[in-house]
Amino acid sequence: MDKLWNHNYIKVMTANFALFFAFYILTPLLPLYLSEHFHATKDVIGLVLSGYTITALLFRPFSGYVVDTFSRKTVLMACFASFAIFFAGYLAAGTLLLFTIVRTLHGGPFGALTVANSTVAIDVLPSSRRNEGIGYYGLSNNLAMAFAPTIGIFIYRWSHSFELLFWLALAIALVGWMVDATVKLNKKPVPTTTPAEPRRKLSLDRFFLVKGWLLGANMVFFGFCFGVLSNYLAIYSKEELDMTGGTGTYFMLCSIGLILSRLQGGSALRKGRLTHNAAEGMVISLVGYTLFILMPTLSPNPTTLSLLVGYYGSALLIGLGNGHMWPAFQNMMINVAQHNQRGTANSTILISWDIGMGLGILMGGVVAEHLGYSAAFWTVAIVNAIGVSMFFVRTRQFFLNRRISLDVK
């Protein structure tokens, strides 16, 4: 059997860990930063934070095209450098307007970088271990999500300094750039054309994998849910549940669930059981989101054991569910694409996630401003249920009809 854990694959995973560590060390604390430092209202917080995701979304389609067309190593290094530099912009942003501009523009290199890095990971994997390898690649995201929010919240509670967190995010991103600089890739052959084989014209399918459109549409629902959870958990826990120290533990448990599901689901991915993994994951996540919002209603006293079990238990379930669902959807998208559309397939699934995240951040802030955070999280449970129903009614068969390899099911 071909070797899965080669040196280049490990390096790309390490760089991906640094990328998402730098991202997640700030994510749960930015609503607090905007509220305390700039006195922003809930809907303004949602508007400011959604700009990052919207810009990432705009860059995704072009990122897939660029990654598939030009030197992937060059594109990767340029995107990583830009991503790191923007953290310095947070330090220089002294007004809410300047912070909004920097945060919004930062989404561009983030969107391009995640496409480039995940595509390079696919390139350095042996074809026989690709489904499994893509699943394990996500462990680097999950480990970052496990430690970064907890460390970020601990540093803030110790230092009360957002500037320290911005410097730390910058330094970690630069470390990721240096690791990716050591990755060795085979040079892509220069495309040639002949009278019988004209140069491929630009089309929508170069930027968005039209063949997998319903997979992408389904992913929007799950991105919406995680957008609300990841950005409003800390402030919801503080204001609604009177839990000031549990957010870091919540993200830690969520990531433990993600990690366990990746390890447990590796065998199913290796056997090509993609729809099975996706279905299992989304049902578990639905139970987790429902439990998260239901338990405060059943146990209004934050100190009760049942509330704590429901609160932290939902983290583990949501992590387990997303850990099964995400690599399954990513592999399904790749398995309806041609080999020269890997970058486009990756960007398409990430575009869908970004649309959902952006809508979740924006709508979560609006609903919270007018109806409260409890209503915002009830919206999450409803949207997640719609996404699950959509998969079983339509998306599963959509994929089975369009898959390229019949061994993948």
Descriptive tags:
single chain; 409 residues; mainly alpha; 13 helices; 78% helix; globular
The largest sheet is: none
Secondary-structure element pattern, one letter each: HHHHHHHHHHHHH
Shape call: globular
Let me know the number of strands. Answer: 0
Mean pLDDT: 85
- Terminus-to-terminus distance: 22 Å
- Counting DSSP H or I runs of 4 or more residues, the number of helices is 13
How would you portray this structure in words?
The chain has 409 residues and is mainly alpha-helical. It is built from 13 helices and no strands. Helix 10 packs antiparallel against helix 13.
Task: Describe the secondary-structure layout.
Elements: H1 7-24, H2 30-37, H3 42-69, H4 72-92, H5 96-123, H6 130-159, H7 162-180, H8 213-239, H9 247-270, H10 274-298, H11 305-334, H12 342-371, H13 373-402
Helix pairs in contact: 1-5, 1-6, 1-7, 2-3, 3-5, 3-12, 4-5, 4-7, 5-12, 6-9, 6-11, 8-12, 8-13, 9-11, 10-11, 10-13, 11-12, 12-13
